[in-house]
Amino acid sequence: MFTGIIEDMGIVTNLKRDLNNLHISIKSNLTSELKVDQSVSHNGVCLTIVDIENGVYTVTAIQETLEKSNIGSLKINDKVNLERAMKLGDRLDGHIVQGHVDQTAVCSKVKETNGSWMFTFNYDSKLNNITIEKGSITVNGTSLTVVNSQKESFSVAIIPYTYNHTNFSTFKEGTLVNLEFDVLGKYVAKLIDLNNR
């Protein structure tokens, strides 16, 4: 369980294919505090640490993760949003994030707006995920508030701190991102769907 508050941006140092799996090595300021078997969110994807060596840790993504997220498109030196699992008793500064990506989206517009940025993302609505105005959304692991909720798109406003401390600063039109929709909204949508059958 995560909150969507990014702690660090890691740098991809190595990528190694092993059958259908991808081993991803990352250098991060958090590495010294991590341990093998720990779960860490990478661009919103919960992955388990399998090795730590010389200030670099490695996680493994399986085929399903590679198909449902942007993890399979990572390249050496890419920046990755990182968050360690939430501690019981800590403040929930973002919202409840599971680290399970629902689908990807494409950045369709980046607009600077007098000291902040507005990012618009398009996604496939056929997967029955929805956003609501002022609701929560996770983009590459970052907890955000939805602006301009549409059937197949939404926008988020990014303040300078978030822009500079997440990989939002690398986004441009065409950038593929991971989405995790609000878990409460997913339960409500499922209940409505069941009641309409």
Account of the 3D structure:
By secondary structure, this protein is mainly beta. It folds into two domains: 8-84, Elongation Factor Tu (Ef-tu), domain 3 (Beta Barrel), CATH 2.40.30; 103-195, Elongation Factor Tu (Ef-tu), domain 3. Helices cover 13% and strands 41% of the residues. The chain has three helices and twelve strands, in the order βββββαββββββαβα. The protein has helices spanning 63-68, 160-165, 183-195, and strands at residues 8-18, 21-27, 39-42, 45-53, 56-61, 79-84, 103-112, 117-122, 136-139, 142-147, 153-158, 176-181. A six-stranded antiparallel β-barrel has the order 1-2-5-4-3-6. It has a six-stranded antiparallel beta barrel with strand order 7-8-11-10-9-12. The chain is globular, with a radius of gyration of 17 Å. It starts with 7 loop residues before the first strand and ends with a helix. The relative contact order is 0.19. The model has no long low-confidence stretch (mean pLDDT 93).
Radius of gyration: 17 Å
Count of spatially separate domains: 2
Report low-confidence residues grouped into runs of 5 or more: none
Structural class: mainly beta
- CATH overall fold name of the largest domain: Elongation Factor Tu (Ef-tu), domain 3
What is the overall pLDDT average? Answer: 93
Order of helices and strands: EEEEEHEEEEEEHEH
Overall CATH class of the largest domain: Mainly Beta
Spatial separation of the terminal alpha carbons: 32 Å
Helix content percent band: 10-25%
CATH architecture of the largest domain: Beta Barrel
Q: Reading side by side through the largest sheet, how are the strands ordered? A: 1-2-5-4-3-6
DSSP, total strands: 12
Individual helix count: 3
Percent strand equals 35-45%
Largest sheet: 6 strands, antiparallel, barrel
Can you tell me the overall shape?
globular
